[in-house]
Design brief:
By secondary structure, this protein is mainly β. Helices cover 10% and strands 47% of the residues. It contains 3 helices and 14 strands. A hairpin with a 4-residue loop joins strand 3 and strand 4.
Length: 302
């Protein structure tokens, strides 16, 4: 059982990617005498990587950072592709982000969740894929991740609208809705003299398995407040190691949902390309316990 909708991005998203590419080309082609829009002035890795929902941050957590390598003088663009191999499932995402004057971030991400052999056991058909679109926006309110007072972190608020492309299935498993919106507030600070970055994020959400299994359920329909925390250490200016922890609601009656955590290493291969590898543990997914495995992500940021 595999619907055609799960097989391709579709014309609407092709237009979105074409528009983003044209926009990036326009920025690069700005007149030489003008201030460059793609200024690339940030310190390496201080823009974060693309999280699983597309927002800049860590692998699991959204941070207060703004995507791209721009400072407050320009516009930045980043793109990512991420894959996760779990014990019984496969997960993949890709997306693009635009950062405007290190103040506003706009993101799009597509998530694909492959049930593999579990799909047959669940009655969906082997290899059935759950798909989800995520549209996000983030605004930096005060502070700076790197500069300024160490007592004042960069603080940002964000919104992520998530839309499952498998409405009939997620409602059949008990979700109250196939669409939902998360709200986040993040504080991030890099203590440069100690080479340590700390982030804390509060998320108001009712997403089931990050939204892949819909939103709300018999246990809880409304949004609840969840926490995302990250700590990272810069071994060198181009190499960072760290860990994250993310709490999650457990809304569905058919299966519990566990908190997630990871251990990661991010390497800036060049100023504009970053590879991230992680050990990720998301616990139980649709009654199958022990879902842990490896994450690999490639990001290009300008």
């Amino acid at each position: 059982m595999q619907n055609d909708q799960n097989q391709a991005i579709g014309p609407r998203h092709s237009v979105w990617f074409s528009t983003a590419a044209a926009f990036a080309s326009f920025l690069v082609a700005a007149p030489a005498h003008a201030d460059p829009l793609l200024d690339g002035g940030k310190l390496v890795l201080t823009n974060g990587i693309s999280s699983i929902e597309g927002a800049s941050g860590g692998g699991l957590a959204s941070w207060a950072t703004i995507a791209g390598m721009e400072t407050d003088r320009g516009v930045g663009v980043s793109a990512h592709v991420t894959g996760i191999e779990l014990a019984d499932y496969g997960w993949q995402s890709h997306g693009v982000s635009v950062g405007i004057k290190d103040r506003v971030e706009l993101t799009y991400a597509r998530q694909n969740f492959d049930t593999r052999k579990v799909g047959a056991a669940l009655g969906l058909g082997e290899g059935y894929r759950f798909n989800q679109d995520i549209f996000g926006a983030k605004v930096r309110l005060v502070g700076d991740t790197v500069y300024g007072s160490p007592l004042l972190p960069q603080i940002s608020v964000g919104v992520q609208h998530k839309r499952s492309l498998d409405a009939a299935i997620v409602k059949a498993v008990g979700a109250a809705s196939s669409e939902g919106t998360d709200f986040t507030a993040s504080a991030t600070k890099l203590f440069l003299s100690k080479s340590v970055l700390v982030n804390a994020t509060a998320r108001l959400t009712n997403a089931n398995q990050f939204g892949l299994l819909g939103f709300g359920g018999a246990n809880q329909a409304d949004r609840t407040l969840q926490f995302e925390g990250s700590v990272a250490y810069m071994l060198t200016p181009r190499l960072v190691v760290g860990g994250e922890y993310r709490t999650r609601p457990s809304n569905l009656a058919i299966a519990r949902e566990d908190d997630a955590h990871d251990l990661f290493v991010a390497w800036a291969v060049t100023r504009y390309a970053t590879i991230t590898a992680a050990y990720a543990d998301v616990g139980s997914v649709a009654t199958f316990d022990g879902q842990r495995g490896g994450l690999v992500s490639l990001q290009f940021a300008f």
